[in-house]
Amino acid sequence: MSGTQQPSVLASYRDAVTERLRAGAPFGDIEDSIDAVEDLTMDEKAALWLFAFRCATLRATTRGAYPPGSAPVVAGSPGPLEFDTNGFPVSPPGAGVMLARD
């Protein structure tokens, strides 16, 4: 078995979204591109859209305020996104579903 693994289709699209955001593409254009993809399920498109939205929001809130890579980390703020082998975001430890009490 080889030590290298082929990236998932979703991971490839995630990388493409990241590059388009870095190039300054308008978010609406990125949304349209995600909608046009035919080889992703609706859930995968939703995950990709959320990833794009999160990245775009982070870029907008830190643009010009800090040098690249030096934005402050606020206690309780989410850390860097991590992804599973299928390209889906992985929840941080302890980020479970909270249920309301009766």
Describe, in short, the structure shown.
The chain has one domain (8-91). The chain is 44% helix and 0% strand.
Task: Note the main attributes of this structure.
mainly alpha, 44% helix, single chain, 102 residues, 0% strand, 3 helices
What does this 3D model show about the protein?
By secondary structure, the chain is an all-alpha fold. The chain has one domain. 44% of the residues lie in helices and 0% in strands. α2 (27-36) runs antiparallel to α3 (42-62). The model has no long low-confidence stretch (mean pLDDT 73).
Break the fold down into its secondary structure elements and pairings.
Layout: H1 9-22, H2 27-36, H3 42-62
Helix pairs in contact: 1-3, 2-3
Shape designation: globular
Mean pLDDT: 73
Q: Characterize the main sheet.
A: none
How many DSSP-defined strands? Answer: 0
